[in-house]
């Protein structure tokens, strides 16, 4: 069957099997930032933005995103993304880097919907990203710093 | 994941969706897909995408005192909405936030969680203690049914040939009503090994309305009418909380499974009931 | 207090939290992992794993599978040589038994290999696998390690296995080291404490599961791109099992998505290589998460008994430690992990003069434990640090005091260093750097140790507790493992740094580049690091045993010094200067009469300017460590236990660590934080569970609970830097030590809060509650 969606800003058509999983489709089409970590929606390494919201692409059929906007780390290039990446690097939040794209997606999704998250809200937004290297400490720091930098104060006060 | 999907449909109307569902082959409605992701089957299936049926309203109708949530509304959207935050001092949004993880809540829909009532479902006890009506479309008509009666066995065949359109939650009077949701799980990102929701309405220090629902017992969430009846008319005290906890532990139907033993579940129910009632008591006292 | 404090000198590149050299590629999600590469005409492969815990394969019928459209090749014991080997990626000759086979006519655990299929697509492979008919003759399984030695069921009675300690009793490995007469000393000690703890099966769960591609290049050489911590060991073992010369194999390690020991193992390389050789096509295989849990490697479950004998002041006189390690179906790392239970713990308390360390690693029909961060040390520290707490109580001393009274110090040694090495005797070693006392003091201050009794729980249903534990680890394996590094000067004054050392996410490429840049007086950007590729990078044993910063770091330091010396020599020759008088400050080479920037000089080196002195400056240096200086850590926990439910609310975790000079403080902290959270999971939630048939029942993140952001306490890592004279710029390694603390520190804190003694992690609320209830019922 045919599905059509906007991938990283470009309208694209794909011929897919009805049961094709979005994760496979994206990886087969060059989006290698989308990682295969568990294929059960538990680790978050395969996250993408679907209409601006972080979701695990291993639990989505390609047919489900017909007509939607999909963004992967390959196609994220705005100021918020740049800042997030920079703070992640500076904080030491990237170790092996395998979970990093998923963490970026979650953080981006959080910060676009909540410019001023508290530490609790940051933890809640990252609760679907397993990381075995960092112990999360520096990831949380990096997101706090990004929030501060883009204008919030990350004290959670609304 | 379903490994053998042979067809994927995008019906444009409720009738079309139902007619696709009522054919010979094995089929599932799909919206967010997070519940289906937990089914692992190699049997051939057809998927019927209901996300284009316009069932995604999220509307606070103060006049009629209710909150309408369409079946395709994603859980996280409800969590973040001002409408849900306004229900019982944030009870609805805070408890819905306990479901799954952020990406799961972003993808998962209200309807999906109701159509496939997992035994560990958080949403069933949460909505059961509010006055929740479920709208469903059946044989050309829109009908309603109280949520806590949705899974009764004599309703099963009706439910199977219906589409859930959404729910309507009637807004309790603020001030003298409060609710609490509690979840026990092996880690923070885990489905419940036991969950409990309690809501009390208090007038002049006495309970006038009580609802208590326990899920992941390990069976799906159910209200405990005997305990609810016992609470009504009683003065809300710490003593009562303690007593009710004990009663709940004894009267709820609980079993052991690979996650928790029965005795421990009883202990948890006892503690969670007592704590929920105590916290509600404090909240109502603060409000009034 | 340790004398070897950080050097006064200021570093230019080292001891700075510079961002990772590979960081940009990683945050940009570039295709840099082994599974991200695409191959023209590639095949995928999958494994049929055993549904039986113990069985003989009577017959394999692949006729139906061969007919499946898209199936290209099938491997099983009938068409592949057995090739006895060990899957342990250890230095040759490996101290692990050769008891593994590419395919065998016997399966020894649920998840063991039966056959493999290569095909055009994953679907074809899956269908092919489902159509292989296997006839099994079931054998009795053994699941209980306590019964394994005394049963008639033998797990490795095949004739061609070698190096097994006692196959007739299912004992893969045995250790028995006695120093002095601990039995006698303990019988005369004023105070005796006995402790027995049992740890569980746990898995590493790197977020990237194993993935390997094998293909033949244009010269028919076998190229293997694989997620490994040990590319050189993999090449050697591949050559061994395929009977192909090492020269015909190239192993490439790209970026790795975490390892923690599970990738210190020969895993998918043999199957993918065999398929590539047979089909002539590139073959990729990856483990699913379920396979990663069941069929890769995990941590050795153990029962460890500790007996302490001390005088009435609490000074240790003797320690006895008895271990029963479950090595599952195969003996990979069985001897060395067992040895490390003692060798990484007992020297910490060198006050005890008489020691007995002994035990067996036994086979069972369960999944295969291997190397896992900590490598036996966490299993040993749990009972040891639990017992120390009780000793403190018995002699009426603060837990801090009892440790300070007994722990090793600078200038001191332990006979264990010499007696107990990696599968053989070890090497004599004196401690050159140890600021453990300061770690203890600073950690204690941070957690508020002195005022701990005044702190109240947050509600009346909870009890507050504080606990601590100290640990050491090592830095590499002395006189066994080695590392080498190569530096090549480019025309602009930059250097290619080639290391066999394996960055698996730890940041070692960055740390090693920092060391090179510091010595060479250049910027970090001037070092172009490449790791690891057996064709291009020099030998390195690999990333394990906390070796990279210390061992590979020293190799890089030596190579950089050598490069510098050679540059000075050539400079002296060209300009007729006295080499002794040439100085080298950041980027400037200066003789008595000539001065050149490194950049200018480098450009001229391969030009006519140099006349006959033209030279490609390129040097290689090797490092064979003679000792393994331990990092030290003091860990503190504050928690509350809900007495109604047994839930542990882990509130704060403080770890102060002496890591020598922190080459990159941010990355050093990151190693600690990651290890601590890994250890917290091990302590509280993680356990591989099995049914009565030996099948793992929770092989998914849905049911095997790894901590996420919301499970972690407030974590504070304090780097207490010392200067290790034998380390590069004073550094020691800290890849593993952080995982040793959580179990004992948490168990001690729960005991402090409630009085109950937890001896079997994970400490689930139900377990805690039952223990408390049993105590109450007794009272």
Describe the structure.
The complex is a heterotrimer of chains A (158), B (288) and C (779). In chain A, strands 2-1-5-3-4 form a 5-stranded mixed β-sheet, with helices on one face. Helices cover 34% and strands 15% of the residues of chain A. Chain A has helices at 22-28, 79-91, 100-113, 119-125, 137-149; strands at 2-7, 10-15, 47-50, 53-56, 69-71. The model of chain A has no long low-confidence stretch (mean pLDDT 94). Chain B has 288 residues and is an alpha+beta fold. Chain B folds into 3 domains: 5-49, no CATH class; 58-170, Uridine Diphospho-n-acetylenolpyruvylglucosamine Reductase, domain 3 (2-Layer Sandwich); 177-287, Enolase-like, domain 1 (2-Layer Sandwich), CATH 3.30.390. Chain B has helices at 14-21, 75-80, 82-85, 91-96, 102-107, 110-115, 123-128, 156-160, 225-231, 238-251, 262-287; strands at residues 5-9, 27-30, 45-49, 58-61, 66-70, 131-138, 141-146, 163-170, 177-184, 194-203, 206-215, 222-223. In chain B, the strands form 3 sheets. A 5-stranded antiparallel β-sheet of chain B has the order 4-5-8-6-7. In chain B, strands 9-10-11-12 form a 4-stranded antiparallel β-sheet. Chain B has a 3-stranded parallel β-sheet with strand order 1-3-2, covered by helices on one side. Chain C is of the alpha+beta class and 779 residues long. Helix content of chain C is 27%, strand content 22%. In chain C, 63% of the residues are buried. Classes of the chains: A alpha+beta (158), B alpha+beta (288), C alpha+beta (779). The interface between A and C is large, with 48 and 55 residues.
